[in-house]
Amino acid sequence: MIEQREQQESQEPQGERLQKVLAQAGIGSRREMEEWIAAGRVTVNGEVAMLGMRVVEGDVVRVDNKRPIRIRTEDARLPRVLLYHKQEGEIVSRDDPENRTSVFDKLPRLSGQKWIAIGRLDFNTSGLLIFTTSGDLANRLMHPRFEVEREYAVRVQGSMTEQQMRQMLKEGITLEDGPVKFEKLLDEGGEGYNHWYRIVVKEGRNRVVRRTFEALGLPVSRLMRVRFGIVNLPPRLKRGMLAELGSGEVAAILDWVGMEVKAAVAQHTDPKPSHGQTEGRSRAEKPGNKKAGAAAKGKQGNIPAPMPRGRSGAKHGARGKVKNTAY
User: Fold this and answer.
1) pLDDT grade for 99, boundaries at 50, 70 and 90
2) How many Å apart are CA 73 and CA 192, to the nearest integer?
3) CA angle 264-79-243, nearest 5°?
4) Which residue from 80, 83, 130 is spatially nearest to 306, judged by alpha carbons?
5) Three-state secondary-structure class, residue 137
6) Measuring CA to CA, how many Å separate 194 from each of 122, 156, 162, 179, 288?
7) All structural domains of the chain
8) What share of the chain is helix, strand, coil (3-state, %, to 5)?
9) Nearest to residue 303, comparing CAs of 281, 285, 325?
């Protein structure tokens, strides 16, 4: 029996699949990496890679003959996850012909990896931005089929009628690129001509919130994302500040999206529970994938967030924890 087991273990393929390693390095999603490999854009140790190839630590992997990509095997550390409180007047892009301030300028530098923004915010929108080094995690949170909730605080010029509110929650409204419906819509009140609403949507189409209110004749004067999935915008994370999640929080997100967290990785997670601020409104459904068999939908509270960092990335005070928000 023991000899048979040893033979089976010796016959198991070594290393990780190349597309998985590239996704873990934040280059893109696994599906996208498979397309790049098939197109001959990836090399391993100087040879053009093939689909199904496995790599181990020490292999030299390059995409488009650029600098080497660091190999991270399954038992390596968890992916990194950053929270950033985006300010109005910043773009979520590395390249801008107008040379405007980019959110990527605020992020810590990486070696052999890159930061992926989970869900963009337009130039005039503020609030929660999540960055990760995992292409798989980014795909699970952003792809439309997973239907991850995004929650926004919206200030509009004017106010919605009861009929308009019912329409947005039931049949929805048709935009030029298809129908849109709010999952939740709360009237937060207001003064004078300005009125606040709290909304939840399960998609990330370009400017979908602004375009929806504008279709109702209600121009948006301020828009702020406050939650994305189970991740909330921590109250102590002021505009222009960063916070990096601890391994326990990252493991909770991976579990929530249905990504396996190995026992070897679990050794890096925080052993003590977090004691932070909780918001009853910040519960979120697990991402649903009707076609691809993602994690079943269910209720789960927020995960705690660490003490924020300043614009320079330096920590301010001792590490603390606050519940997350979603957009």
Assistant:
1) confident
2) 57
3) 125
4) 83
5) helix
6) 21, 6, 17, 26, 35
7) 2-63 (3.10.290.10), 150-228 (3.30.2350.10)
8) 25, 25, 50
9) 325
**Pairing mode, if any, of strands 242-244 and 81-86?**
antiparallel
CA–CA distance, 291 with 21 (Å, rounded to integer): 25
Q: How far apart are CA 87 and CA 102, in angstroms?
A: 10
* Element housing 45 (H / E): none
Bridge partners of 116, per DSSP, are: 132
CA distance 232 to 280: 11
> How many Å apart are CA 76 and CA 201, to the nearest integer?
35
Task: Name the 3-class secondary structure at 158.
Answer: coil
- Give the dihedral sign, CA 100/101/107/108: positive
Distance between CA 244 and CA 304 in Å, rounded? 11
Neighbours of 258 (CB within 10 A): 16
The catalytic residues are 122
Beta strand segments in 49-168, E: 54-55, 61-63, 81-86, 116-118, 126-132, 150-157
* Structure-block tokens of residue 320: 């603390």
Instruction: Give the Cα separation of 284 and 60 in Å (integer).
Output: 40
Which whole-number Å values give the CA distances from 239 to 87, 124, 208, 225, in the listed order?
6, 14, 23, 12
pLDDT band at 91 (very low <50, low <70, confident <90, very high): very high
User: Taking the CA atoms of the chain, what radius of gyration do you get in angstroms?
Assistant: 22
Task: Pick the more confident residue, 327 or 171.
Answer: 171
How far apart are the C-alpha atoms of 105 and 248, rounded to whole Å?
27
Q: For residue 224, what are its two tokens?
A: 């702020």
The pLDDT tens digits of the residues spanning 145-201 come to 889 999 999 999 999 999 999 999 998 999 998 999 999 999 999 887 899 999 999
Plot region of 326 (φ>0 → left; ψ -120 to 50 → alpha; else → beta) = beta
Selection from 277, 197, 284 nearest residue 235 by Cα? 277
